[in-house]
Amino acid sequence: MKRLVLTKDELTAWVRRMTEGVRVFAPVAVGDYDEFRLVDSDQADLIRWSYQNTRLSPKGLFHPQAERMFKFSTSKEDPEWNILKEVPKDFSPRVIVGMRPCDAAALKIMDVNFDTPEYKDPWWVRRREATTIVGLACTSPSSTCFCTSVNSGPFDTKGLDVLLVPLGDGRFLLDVVSERGEELCQQFGPGGKEADSEAIATYEGLKKKAEAALVPIGDLSPLKERDMLEFFNSPIWDEVQFACINCGVCTYLCPTCWCFDIQDEVYESEGCRLRLWDSCMFPLFTLHGSGHNPRAEKLQRVRQRFMHKLKYYVDKYGQGVACVGCGRCVQFCPVNIDIREVIRLMLVQCECAV
Amino acid sequence: MFDYTEKIREIARRLLQEKKVDGIIGFKKGTIPMMNQPVFITSPDRVELLHWDSWCGVNLANYLPKREGRIGIVAKGCDTRSIVVLSQENQVQRDQLYIIGVPCRGMLDRRKVWEVVGSTDVKGIEEGNGKVRVWGNGFDLKLERSELLQNNCVICVHRNPVVFDELVADEVEEQSVDRYGDIRNIEAMSSDEKWNLFQEIFSRCIRCYACRNACPFCYCPQCFVDESRPQWVGKTIDRTDTLTFHLLRAFHMAGRCTDCGACERACPVGIPVRLLTKKLEKDVKELYGYEAGVQLDERPPLDTYKPDDPEDFIK
Amino acid sequence: MNNPYRPYPVVIDDIIVETDDKNLRTYHLKFLNPEDERAFQFLPGQFAEISVPGQGEIPIGIASSPTEKGFLKFTINKVGKVTTYLHNARPGEVIGVRGPLGKPYPWDKLEGSNVVIIGGGFAFTTLRSSLVYMLHPDNRSLFGDITVVYGARNPGLLLYKDELFEWEKRDDVTLHITVDATDDPNWKYNVGFVPAITKEKAPSSENAYAIVCGPPIMIKFTLPVLTDLGFPPDRIITSLEMRMKCGIGMCGRCNIGTEYVCKDGPVFTFEQLSRLPNEY
Amino acid sequence: MAEWEPKILAFLCNWCSYGAADLAGVSRLKQPPNIRIIRIPCSGRMNPKFILQALRKGADGVWVSGCHPGDCHYIEGNYYARRKFALFKNLLEYVGIEPERLHFSWISSAEATKFAAVAKDVVESVKKVGPSSRLIKREAEVE
């Protein structure tokens, strides 16, 4: 598919044209960190083309932290009393500009959960269908990043429709990587010129350099090969869990954590059923009505989080680990529990077992 | 100044070898710059893991409640005050603890470093003579240590442990500072201004409960946020719910908070949650002359009263 | 798009107090729309989310049999917010039902086999469904011998008493009713814990499957009895409970290792469970 | 349009202020109709959660009343309550809840006149700041 080179002004102008036809979400600075926000044509030049990671992953654009599912009347006089009605939402076409490849790869990981042969989560599926993703390659990954170790990479295009690569001289290479990306470029012409061999060589060079900057964790295939119970019963969890304070930082910042809660709220005579992010770190997550809790202990909850990402998901779907190496949990865990260390411990334990 | 690591290891080794304690709660060096990890050392051959530097802001007293056996704990001034409070509340028994006291010149705040260097990707940091050198992609700077202190450390008045079994070094000089300047500024605002300020402050909250869980005093078997009959606070990120959560959380800290800063440090989105706890601290001090975690044999201020407590607000 | 979170509206048609302590009530629910009833095709062993707008949802095993038309039946213990609300509800109230959810008992395997049903306390709901289903004239010939051991702490806590005593009289099913203890001098059935009565009655394991549902302590002591009787782990079937929200394998809380109890279960054999983490 | 009337939730101690309310009624003392009463066993039973819940559910004002210091049926419940009230009232005002919405009083069961007077005072005070808009739990402003 086609590859173009755009100047920054051309890129901004392209995004501005999009804002006039569809909803556009892009990374902008909010206080002291970056966040994906809806941008209008006046804000196109506020887009941060060199941000590291948004503090919160863009998963919230597809799976919002709090989302109204249904509304209902609680008044017995209402003929539609207690009948749940879907809350109307805007599922019109939209473009997310500037998503990092890891965050886009995370959406693919979550598709497996929300878009299944048996059930389709309507909100997830409709938002995914409505969205075209223009990614932004990572030319200088952070020291907490490890995407290349977990089936992704700084230039990974698997979750993307278009990849933008900052060429380092103020220009961007635009790489159309899907049909959908093609359609976007037809609907909103990006301008620019055809990428010449020099630009493509620069792109290849930047990609190699970025990949080389990422420290590999090691060969993760033992995670797949060894038996679930060997990992589950391993002594490593005692050490891993000690520092954990069971907050929800890792799960809420994680681009692949999808767990949610469903809560009803009533406001006088009407009510709302909401879906809210939840976390396997919280004891309430698994507490039975009887008072029994299968994961009552911190160790069990910590183990669940890592086992889910690194073993259960691997075994259940055969698509590798449910981690894209964005490094948010590494950076923001208040007590420095580092998933890279946990992976290493799991791998070392495997080696010992051999 | 921060050559406490060797001394801590030495004490820990001795305590474990002499079987004075079953384990030591301390820090091990973090996997990334400006972070360290709480660790529990139970064997003398593992004491080399113990580490101390300016990034030990986690309050280790948080790991004490419900822990069995004789425990050694590395504790800064604020941590020891937390131990005092936990002891008043019967969550720990002083005689089961061996407190390795750390006179503290203040912990550093990585947010301040990020702000100065303009990036959250710091590749390395080192410290000496009141200066901090920090480097990463495209920067290598020398900063004043005093400029990087955690906000609570800037106004700390108990840098030295208030209870301990052993100190790792000589006591440091205590500072004399005005702790409540920012609180008074807010108090002077109109209701509307105050409301708008706090609406803005808490609008970024993601309800991860890191502030709650980083606190040594949040040990209730069930938190009010998890109560459903009745439900006191909604679980959404609606501003009313978020403020309700923060108000009740802060109120539960009244007369207990030692301003260790663990809550603010843990917040992934940088909410200054201490603005609420410090207000309560100020009121407790002004109304009841009480300072949390200083005297082992005192009763917490909400667990006692004086017949002539101020009541001019009561009709 | 079909929204799997949207419950079918149903009306509470009847409420029956099952036990002397009044903590268990059986609800007969009728679909408001006939097409919803047609869409709700289930087999015994499946469950549904009962949805009370404003209160929440609860996963409850379906106690009626697909052979019983015109209503769904759920027996509900008073435990939390939703169940307490339901215990105070009256016939005529509109609520919702979402389902059927989860996998049923393995009827393809049970057909042609002898079936031993072992139940304790209020875990008899989907077992009742199964029993009614198998005893239906259209189905009875598909199964071999049917043996049931059902116990409760005392006679007042047995579910579906009228039906039980009727079944007990039939000759196409062997029913052993038991209670842990009773001071009723006229009690004419067994006295003893379920594992002990199972051992005493010793149902044959030949060409047989056992379905065991009950409190964990009952299951714990019944398993060795069944093993001694010659039931292999892949022929001992149970149904698990977990805290659930979505019921469709998405919200993430009810997993045991790789398996979501709501979607991949709630029915498991002990052979399957032996390969999963012991976290339920 | 009729003048707006505030809704005020009063938490009254069973042993004193509740009796005073009763006596005020029996004595036919004139008092405003804006107050809904919840009887509590002692002002020491008051939990700050109750006050927040009242505000969240839309009360325009909250009034807590107990026995005079020294007269607590449980000897010292109101002494403990007094400290909690002071701190919580200050905290709510600090985040921008108008001080006119929160009221505390000591009223013995004999003080029917005081009850009526304070009730009037509370209603007037809340009226001054108008309908409550802060901390009311409404449909969440989320997706």
Automatic annotation (TrEMBL), chain D:
Its keywords, alphabetically, are: Iron, Iron-sulfur, Metal-binding, Oxidoreductase
Q: Does the keyword Iron-sulfur apply?
A: yes
List all membrane-crossing ranges: none
Q: Which domain of life is it from?
A: Bacteria
Single GO MF annotation: iron-sulfur cluster binding
Domain F420-non-reducing hydrogenase iron-sulfur subunit D: start-end pairs? 8-130
This one is known as Hydrogenase iron-sulfur subunit
